[in-house]
Design a protein that fits this description.
By secondary structure, this protein is α+β, with helices and mostly antiparallel strands. The protein folds into two domains: about 120 residues, SH3 type barrels, CATH 2.30.30.790; about 45 residues. It contains three helices and six strands, in the order H-E-E-E-E-E-E-H-H. A hairpin with a 7-residue loop joins strand 2 and strand 3. The N and C termini lie far apart (about 85 Å).
Length: about 170
């Protein structure tokens, strides 16, 4: 296979715009989770401890958080269709790219010094495809709720008709 063909496929799979997350940032990653035939968005919030291949289509960040006293790390591919959006909530001053030393620390020693930044400017990424997908998911949920309500109304009407029939029979007797 030619390199140009591989490059074309890679570029097609890339998202148009992704947030420039750096080590030390506190981020909220909105990820699509499929459970059976349902889809939902799950949010994972933590500190970015590693950024790999930032300019590549295989760009990845590793996010760490403490859940119930246990450290949890999750890696996210930035260009994955399962990652809805990444929101930077806090920037910190760090001097390394890999913050693996945070794994051994807890409490005050694990704190990072915050830096002021333009939160709206950094997170202002408009991806038309992601917004359309989010609108589609909301529309599907709304349609499902309407269908369920219509089904319930039909069932209630059927029960009311049966009740009226039974009452009419009793009135005859």
């Amino acid at each position: 296979m030619s390199f140009a063909l591989i490059q074309k496929v890679n570029d097609e799979q890339r998202k148009a715009a992704v947030v420039d997350a750096k080590s030390g940032d506190t981020v909220r990653v909105h990820q699509k989770i499929k459970e059976g035939n349902k889809e939902r968005i799950q949010i994972f919030e933590g500190v970015v401890i590693r950024v790999d291949r930032a300019k590549s289509h295989t760009a990845r960040i590793t996010v760490r958080k403490i859940a119930s006293g246990v450290g949890v790390e999750k890696s996210f591919l930035l260009h994955s269709p399962l990652v809805e959006k990444i929101e930077i909530t806090r920037r910190s001053k760090v001097r390394r790219n890999f913050l693996s030393y945070l794994r051994n620390r807890s409490g005050k020693s694990a704190r990072l010094k915050a830096v002021k930044f333009d939160r709206e400017g950094v997170n202002d990424i408009h991806d038309a495809h992601a917004e359309a997908e989010e609108a589609r998911l909301k529309e599907e949920a709304h349609a499902a709720a309407e269908a369920k309500a219509a089904e319930k109304a039909a069932k209630d009407a059927e029960l009311a008709a049966k009740q009226a029939e039974v009452e009419a029979r009793h009135a005859e007797n």
